[in-house]
């Protein structure tokens, strides 16, 4: 089974599982959502295009054997009008908001969600711009719908409760912690590779005097 994580593009939208390519719950305020009834797919594509153009990478997709089976979407709070309607709003000024996290039912439990979250963290760490965290509104009732991410999923992939609420706590993942873990892993890998290289060098001395490793006698 071939699995990979890719950056979200407009071409992915029609393939998103669960009908998410036609959902504009986060992207439009309630009045605007009513006005575009029947044209949600076009509005979703316009929103993604705008964020990609004005801000940058805003999503990851999980692809298994050529099929899109999961995705994450995130953006700066200024581009997510629906966030203002939650009791635990607003999103912190140093964070972006993770709006959607969905994996097709038959592919859950295999680590794809965590892989996409790690990809999101890498994108944001490389970007900089004062972004220190990702926040999301969790749903404590589990998978009651596609629009709000289940709180238990957020907890499982590294988020913690930032502002408690019975139904929709605001959850937060600190990118500094993610970066520290990544740096520790990289240092550990460098140390391991250095030890292996040193061991190889001791067992394979550099040839001298025309390629021979034998000592030259001077009688």
Summarize the structure.
This protein has 219 residues and is of the alpha+beta class. It has helices at 30-35, 40-54, 112-127, 151-156, 175-203; strands spanning 3-7, 59-64, 67-75, 95-103, 133-139, 149-150, 160-163, 170-174.
Structure, described:
By secondary structure, this protein is α+β, with helices and mostly antiparallel strands. The chain has one domain: Gcn5-related N-acetyltransferase (GNAT) (Aminopeptidase, 3-Layer(aba) Sandwich). Helix content is 33%, strand content 21%. The protein has five helices and eight strands. A hairpin with a 6-residue loop joins strand 7 and strand 8 (170-174). The N and C termini lie far apart (67 Å). Mean pLDDT is 85; it is low at 206-219.
């Amino acid at each position: 089974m071939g699995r990979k994580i890719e950056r979200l593009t407009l071409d992915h939208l029609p393939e998103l599982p669960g009908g998410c390519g036609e959902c504009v719950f986060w992207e439009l305020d309630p009045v605007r959502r009513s006005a575009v009834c029947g044209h949600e797919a076009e509005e979703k594509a316009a929103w993604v295009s705008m964020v990609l153009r004005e801000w940058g990478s805003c999503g990851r997709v999980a692809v298994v054997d050529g099929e899109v089976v999961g995705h994450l979407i995130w953006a700066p709070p200024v581009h997510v009008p629906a966030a203002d309607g939650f009791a635990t709003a607003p999103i912190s000024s140093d964070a972006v908001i993770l709006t959607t996290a969905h994996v097709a039912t038959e592919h859950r439990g295999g680590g794809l969600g965590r892989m996409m979250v790690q990809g999101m963290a890498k994108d944001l760490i490389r970007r900089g711009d004062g972004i220190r965290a990702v926040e999301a509104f969790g749903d404590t009732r589990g998978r009651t719908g596609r629009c709000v991410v289940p709180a238990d999923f957020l907890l499982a992939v590294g988020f913690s409760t930032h502002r408690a609420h019975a139904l929709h706590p605001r959850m937060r993942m600190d990118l500094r912690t993610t970066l520290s873990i990544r740096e520790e892993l990289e240092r550990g890998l460098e140390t391991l590779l250095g030890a292996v290289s040193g061991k190889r060098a001791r067992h394979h001395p550099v040839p001298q005097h025309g390629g021979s490793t034998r000592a030259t006698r001077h009688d």
